[in-house]
């Protein structure tokens, strides 16, 4: 699902740019440009369809019976819409609690990632200090490490801090993001230095400059980073399944797996799995719809920034 | 008191490049000082060191009677207007102007009053709720000026504030800045201004004094008209004035009691008004300088030794005057004349032009310093 939403993010930004091009080239007759535009839209629509298909399959699967899901030939739409699947699914496990847990962990992790990444990126772009390049290189090098390599040392650290089987442990262990630092560094570099200098002359502290001058100009980037971080942590499966042992502390992904697989009935309740997954995705879709406007306005702003 | 004193100020970058070489400059309280020079002469670096945006490698910088080398920009009592306006794009004009005052924790009423007053004097009251991207370049620059004014600084710093404006707007904003300086002085406020530009018209029209910089060194500090009429060296002579002064190698020779300037095959006797100003007492090679307006069309009835015959290669008409270009002694020269009498001048026509020897300049060929004492 995270991949799907990231795909939508990218596709939407491409479409926004394409629309601007389209508006500025209105001609009455069919020209090569029209054909090119049509081909472009066709390609983008195909990409969009390709990305949205798993979601549609999941949604319609949640309304089918188990037999319909595996029917041959495959059919996208159910013969009858079994809305009751959702009621049964919600009654079969505490999915509301799992979604709340996921939301809580993802929200606090995202806030910490945004704060940490902004502070680090600001220091990297606006301060001159010894070892700055080396520090940045070291951070970027750590990006190359596979996540699985960090599991054991992170687990030991959490155990020593007494944070195993806690949401705080999950939040803290994901509170720093190399991608966040790199992404915001690139965004901050685009802000004209004279704005920072003007604020310094105006008497603002560095924290005030970051808060009042830099961050408001990077709303789109912050929203994008926030959304990506939120989705990643909301959907996170492997690391939470290692850290969390207590059932009512499960996040949604581990919760779905625990319930349907631990019961030993794997493969029997696919329509319920689809329904649970659809319920899990709803908060992400709402979040995306809210933030979409900010992201698109940010994309439009980039064209007129000095 | 808000005099600004630079004492042996130097700037050396970590890579070893020395941008500023021991500058000594005293800007008096209330003075409008213009720093002018070609690109890369370190005029902006000098201004940024005064503002506290660049570290000073060595030397002493004082504003008023306080040494400010290590003070942050906010504690130096300065306000700066940037070339690109540097308005906060997400804030309205009012918020831009109020931002600095809020950092000073001034009461809301005081902030409102200061902004209203500045907005009125700059005629931007109707723009106060607009954001920078809703304003024209000229309007943005006025808001940037307003942001500086409301802080009531001891010293105003301007970093090429008119560079991004079109020619017409540049003139009107230039006049606005000159008026602002006068008004601030008249109202008894601190009005020391340091203004960086590469445009000599701005320098000549705005500055009480002008500091000409080249390659991180001060070439001359003087009043605009003194710079024009008595350039201290060849660089200032060539830099100040448009079109630029004609400069050519020549020989200054003393024969008996008289001085002669020999250029090409011609030898002209220097008029007494110049010989009394000479700072040397023996013959030497020199740079001869003459401004375009001092090469005039020769009157047919009075042809002198200092008249030459040339072929005009280009005529540039400026409306109220014309520039004539011609080749002589293997280099290009330019003459500047009023419109009267020019009707007859055609491209490729032969003309007799006279050098006004009372207005020539002489510079040492090695040191490039002027060999003529100023008369003021």
TrEMBL record, chain A:
Keyword match Membrane: yes
Pfam hit, one: BPD_transp_1
Single GO BP term: transmembrane transport
Gene3D superfamilies according to UniProt: MetI-like
GO cellular component: a single term: plasma membrane
InterPro entries for this protein: MetI-like, MetI-like_sf
Subcellular location: Cell membrane
Domain ABC transmembrane type-1 positions: 99-291
Ranges that cross the membrane: 40-60, 136-156, 168-188, 209-231, 270-290
Topology relative to the membrane: Multi-pass membrane protein
Domain of life, source organism: Bacteria
PANTHER family from the UniProt entry: ABC TRANSPORTER PERMEASE PROTEIN MG189-RELATED, ABC TRANSPORTER PERMEASE PROTEIN MG189-RELATED-RELATED
Designated name of the protein: L-arabinose transport system permease protein AraQ
Species whose genome carries this gene: Marinomonas spartinae
Automatic annotation (TrEMBL), chain B:
EC number of this enzyme: 3.6.3.-
This protein's UniProt keywords: ATP-binding, Cell inner membrane, Cell membrane, Hydrolase, Membrane, Nucleotide-binding, Sugar transport, Transport
Gene name of this polypeptide: sugC_2
GO MF term set: ABC-type maltose transporter activity; ATP binding; ATP hydrolysis activity
Organism field: Marinomonas spartinae
Name of the featured protein: Trehalose import ATP-binding protein SugC
Domain ABC transporter: 4-240
Top-level taxon of the source organism: Bacteria
PROSITE patterns referenced in this protein's UniProt entry, alphabetically: ABC_TRANSPORTER_1, ABC_TRANSPORTER_2
Entry-linked InterPro entries: AAA+_ATPase, ABC_transporter-like_ATP-bd, ABC_transporter-like_CS, ABC_transpr_MalK-like, ABC_transpr_MalK/UgpC-like, Mo/tungstate-bd_C_term_dom, NA-bd_OB-fold, OB_MalK-like
Pfam families in the record: ABC_tran, OB_MalK
